[in-house]
Amino acid sequence: MELMPERQQTILRRCYMGTDSITEIAEGLGRQRTALYKQLARLKEKLLGCIQQRISMVGDES
Questions:
Q1: CA–CA distance, 23 with 35 (Å, rounded to integer)
Q2: Which of 2, 7, 18, 28 is the most exposed place for a label (fewest CB within 10 A)?
């Protein structure tokens, strides 16, 4: 996650580690709730790709 822009990190933290609802977060960001859900889906895909790449790199070192 550290390689992501700060804004993306903040969104992930607020959605998954905070106490605010998705609606509250979206309103705070000036966005629609559906747009935030779509961005979260893209961010999760990005994280998954990064994790898979790191796993692959570790496997190649063995």
A1: 11
A2: 2
